[in-house]
Amino acid sequence: MLVLSTFSFFIWSSTRTCQGAEVTVQINQTIVLACSAANNSENVEHIGWYRCRTADCESKWDNSRIARVERMREPFVDNTDFDIYVNGTLVIKRIKAVDDGKIFICKAKRNLTGVETSTTILKIAKGKPVTTTTASVQPVTTTAAPGIPGRSSPLPDTPTSLSSSCPDIQSSSVSPSSRKEDLDFETAFKKVAPLIFSLTALLVIAVTIIIYLVVKIKKNKRHGYSHNHGCRFEGGDDNQHAPEDTIVFKLGDCPNEEDGAEEL
């Protein structure tokens, strides 16, 4: 009995087929879709993303393409509603109502081994639209016949069991992602720019006031030095009549402000 059960389980596992991962999203949400077909980047030549109404849209590959990576070095975007990284990760900038039920297919062309695909089906959640948030989704991976999008290499109805994998989708809802590289740097800079400019202006004003006070204090010290020496100008032999506590200089002996400053 145990042997029979084990054999039955083996048959079920080897014939298991993968359906597209159905993911629940919300309007205005930003979604990041990883191309699981290109998880192992070895021998991957090209990656293409397509948005279709059905999984069978070979005749419309060129019209359905939204983004691609050529030679795994040059990312291109065919639709400005999307963005793509050089590793094939797709960014849906903002979920719209028309995306309900749409199928997003990633096709990874590998040298010699053919094309692998990953499929994600979007479902719009009921309720009010949310503010812009980012979520990450890992799609399902299947294997197709050799070829590249737009050429005579149709996608089979059922995936083969060679390299297909069915990740355990425990929940239809996506989990928040911590991808900081998705943050728009320009938007963040615009938020903090007024604060930076205000702090810079306050710093300039404070430095100007400090410089003004230092110059004024030095000037007052020089002026006070020339008036606190108790000197008076006399000529001839009048020095014998001067009080004992008064220093009497003859004409030209009393130091001026510049001399006092140099002596200091």
Automatic annotation (TrEMBL):
Superkingdom of the source species: Eukaryota
SUPFAM superfamilies the record matches: Immunoglobulin
Compositionally biased region (Low complexity): 135-177
Keywords: Membrane, Signal, Transmembrane, Transmembrane helix
InterPro entries registered for this protein in UniProt: Ig-like_dom, Ig-like_dom_sf, Ig-like_fold
Membrane-spanning segments: 195-215
Database matches in Gene3D superfamilies: Immunoglobulins
Signal peptide region: 1-20
Region annotation (Disordered) ranges: 135-178
Domain Ig-like: 1-122
Protein name (database record): Ig-like domain-containing protein
Species assigned in the record: Pocillopora meandrina
Lineage: Eukaryota, Metazoa, Cnidaria, Anthozoa, Hexacorallia
